[in-house]
Amino acid sequence: MYRTVPCIKSDNGSMIPSSHDVVIEVPLSVYVNGRHALTAMISPEMLEEFVTGFLYTERIIRKPEDIDSLRIEDKNAGTPSASVLTKNRFSIMFSSKTVLSGCGGDTSYIDPDRLPKVQSDMTAELSTITKIMKETLISDLHTRTGGIHIVGLFGPDGKICIVEDIGRHNALDKVIGYGLKHNMDFSKTIVTCSGRLSSEMIREFLIANIPIIASRGATTALAISMGEQAGLTIIGFVRG
Amino acid sequence: MKIEDCMADFQIPQYLHYMDNSATSLIPDQVIASMNEYDRQYRANVGRGMHRLTRVATQRYQDAHDSISDFIGGKGGITVYTKNTTEAINMVAAGLDWQPGDRIVTTIVEHHSNLLPWFRLRQKGVDITVVYPGEDGIFEIAAFDEAITANTRLVAVSHVSNVLGTVQPVKEIAAICKERGAYFLIDGAQSVPHFSVDAQQIECDFLCFSGHKMLGPTGTGVLWMRDTVDAVISPLIIGGGTVDDVTTDGYILTSGYQRFEGGTPNISGAIGLALAVKYLENLGMDTICRHEHKLTERLLAGLAEIDHVKIHGPENLKNRIGVVSFTIDKIHPHEIAFLLDEKAAILVRSGDHCCIPLMKYLGLEHGTVRASLYLYNTLEEIDLLIETIEEIARMV
Known about the structure:
The complex is a heterodimer of chains A (240) and B (396).
Chain A: E1 2-11, E2 14-23, E3 26-32, E4 35-42, H1 47-57, E5 67-73, E6 81-86, H2 126-137, H3 140-145, E7 149-155, E8 158-165, H4 168-181, E9 190-193, H5 199-208, E10 212-215, H6 221-230, E11 233-235
Parallel strand pairs in A: 3-6, 9-10, 10-11
Antiparallel strand pairs in A: 1-2, 3-4, 5-6, 7-8, 7-9
Helix pairs in contact in A: 1-4, 4-5, 5-6
Chain B: E1 17-18, H1 29-41, H2 52-71, E2 77-82, H3 85-95, E3 103-107, H4 116-119, E4 127-131, H5 141-147, E5 152-158, H6 170-180, E6 183-187, H7 199-202, E7 206-210, E8 221-226, H8 227-230, E9 243-247, E10 250-253, H9 267-283, H10 285-304, E11 309-312, E12 323-328, H11 333-344, E13 346-347, E14 349-351, H12 356-362, E15 368-372, H13 379-393
Helix pairs in contact in B: 1-9, 2-9, 10-13, 11-13
C-alpha cells in the first residue's frame, strides 16, 4: 500500500537528505462485457470488492450473483485490469459514471426522484458514532503517508470492515463490495468516512440502502439536500 | 439437482438404452446450449485483439480452464485443453527429452493410447517395462515397486481399466514414483468422469482425460501438468498464441496453458466442457459414483446367475466401477452386441476395446462385450439388459 522514496526535507532552514513513505496509486481498468467501463486511480488492494461495489452502485448489477465471471489480472506489474462478465452480457452497455463530483466528470446533474429512499428504522447514539469514528481513523498507513482516505462499515455487532484507499469514492465502493460479498444487510449498517461527503457518495449510500453516514469532514449542500429527500442521516464533523 | 431429474436433459435415453459410456458419453442440453451461446452471441477468437467479443470469448475460455482445474484439484499445475486423452498422452511422450536407456513402466491393461506413444519411443532407445496384474485385473503394489527402478523416467498407468473396470492404486504408485524420481502419468479417461479425482492429492505429474466421456463435446480433452514439470515438456504444436516474442532468428515461448495450445483452439468445445463439469459438480461426483455402484452391483449379480456367461474383471464392487466386460460361451461378442441392440435397443461395445495386448493376455481372441454405465442409466435398464442377455445365452 506504500513505498519509501528518497526526498530532501527542510528542517529549520537546512535541507536534509531523507526518505518518506508514500501511498501506492495504480490505474485499474475495468471492462464489463468486453467494453471499457472506467479506469480508476486506486490503491491496489481489495480490487474485487471495488469492482463489485462499483457495478452495484452503478446499477450494472442488482446482486453479486449477477456477476458471471470476474477476473483481476496484473500482467504488467502495477497496471491491473478487471474483466467482468454479467449474466446478461447484452443488457448492460453504459458509457461512464452517472455522476462525478470534484474531478471534472461529464455529468453533474442528479435527479433525486430517481434515487431510492432509505428503507430502515436504524438509529444510533452519538456516543456510538464517536466511538466508531475513532476506530475508523486509527490508521498506521495514514500516519506514515498522510495520503489516504478511510471508510468504515459498522453493523449492530460492531466493525464489519475498514478500508483505506487513495480515493474516498474507491474506499466506499470497496466497503459496499465487501458488504455485498458477505451478504450484509445494509439497512442495519452505519458508514464512517474520513473525508468530505459529496452528492456522488450520497447516491451510493441510497442505492445500497445505508441509513446512517458519519464523516470527520464537511458535507456539500447538494449532499444534504439529497439526503433530506431520501431520509438519510448525515452526520458531519465528527471529532474528539 | 437429483440424479433422476437429469433424465430430462438427455434425449437419447428417452428412446434407447445407452450403455457405451466408456467410448463416449451422452451430452446434456445445457452443454449444447452453452456452445450454441458462444457461436450465436459472442463468437470470436481468443487471446487476440481488443474488441468486445474477443474480450468476452477470452474470459469465457480462461474461466473454462479454471473450472476444469478446480474440478480435478489442479491448482498447482497447468490445465491444457487437448483433442482427447490420446493427444494429451502423445504430448507428454513427444514433449520429454528422451535419452537412450531411459525406462518407461506401463501395464498390460492399458488402452492403445497409453501404450503406442510409449512403444514408439523404443526408436529412441527407451526401454519399456510392462507390468501384469493378478487375478481379476487387480495389481499388487509390489509389482510396481519391483518394476520402477532408479533409471525409470516415467510410469504411465490408467486409473481405471476401460475393459475390466478395475481401479488401480494410483496414490501408492505415485509414492513409489516420487521416491525413485520418476514422472507419473495417469490416464484418467475412465476415472475422472465417474468419481472425484484430485491430482494434487494423488501427487501425480500428469493427468490426461477426455471431455467427451464426461458429458462434454467430442474433440475435447485435457492434459494437466504439475507446475514443476510443464517447463520440461516441449510443446507438440507451436505457432499462433504460443509465443511472447518472435524474430527472424528465433522465438520465445510464452508460459501457462497458452504455451501448449498453438493455433485457434476448440473454443466452443472448451466452454461446453466447462459447463459439463459444472453439471457434474451440481449433481455431485459422490452421488454419481453411488448411483453407478448401485447399477453395477445389480448388473454383476444378475450376470453371475446366468449360465454360459463369464464376467471379466472383479465380480464384486471392490476396486471397480460400472465398466462390466463379459462373454457368452460360443457366441461372438459382436453378435451379442448386435442382438442386444436388435432385441432391446441396448447399446453396448464389443471387441477388443483398443486393448489388443490385454485381450491376448486374457486369451480372449474376439474380445468381450462391455456395458459401461453412467449417471442417466437406471435399474430398470439394468434389469432389461440382464433379461436380454439371459435370452441370448439360452441360444447356446
